[in-house]
Structure formats: structure tokens, C-alpha cells
Write a structure and sequence with these properties.
alpha+beta; about 90 residues; three-stranded antiparallel sheet
Length: about 90
């Protein structure tokens, strides 16, 4: 789980740069790691990694609650942006 969340953090930074606030400081990163563990324990965590040609290309950090998928954070390799919009 931690490796997947680290992938989300890395791809989020690549996608959003300094505009991304969810993982902007070490305090926020620690918060998300602890919160994700609690969500995993309760069956609420949804972490998805998309691999393209063997490399991590996109990631999503979301929550499942009350029968809903609640979209939260994600990121992707900036060079794949044009493909995502096609």
C-alpha cells in the first residue's frame, strides 16, 4: 500500500508541481500515509496505478464509502497528457 501511495505522491508532484497542495509538505505526507492506513483497515481506500509499457504512468488515490467512489487525488506523467485527452 505504501509503495502505491508513494507513486501517487510522485506522479501528483510531476503533474501539478508547486500548485499541488495535498503532498506539499512532510506533515501532509505523514497525514496522508496515516489516513490511508486507517482507510485501508476500514475498506475505504482505493489506490490505482496505471502502467504503460512497464512504467508507472498514472495513479489515483480515492475513497469508497457508502457505495460511492469519491475521487480525491491523482497524477500522471506530464508527457502523457496529450494521450489522456485524446
Amino acid at each position: 500500500m505504501l509503495a502505491a501511495l508513494e507513486t501517487v505522491e510522485r506522479l501528483n508532484h510531476l503533474r501539478w508541481g508547486k500548485a499541488g497542495q495535498a503532498f506539499a509538505t512532510e506533515d501532509w505526507i505523514r497525514f496522508h500515509r496515516a489516513f490511508a492506513c486507517k482507510c485501508l483497515e476500514n475498506g475505504w481506500l482505493s489506490l490505482q496505478i496505471l502502467r504503460v509499457d512497464g512504467r508507472e504512468a498514472a495513479a489515483a488515490y480515492d475513497f469508497r464509502y457508502g457505495g460511492e467512489l469519491l475521487k480525491y487525488q491523482g497524477g500522471w506523467l506530464p508527457e502523457l497528457r496529450s494521450q489522456a485527452l485524446a
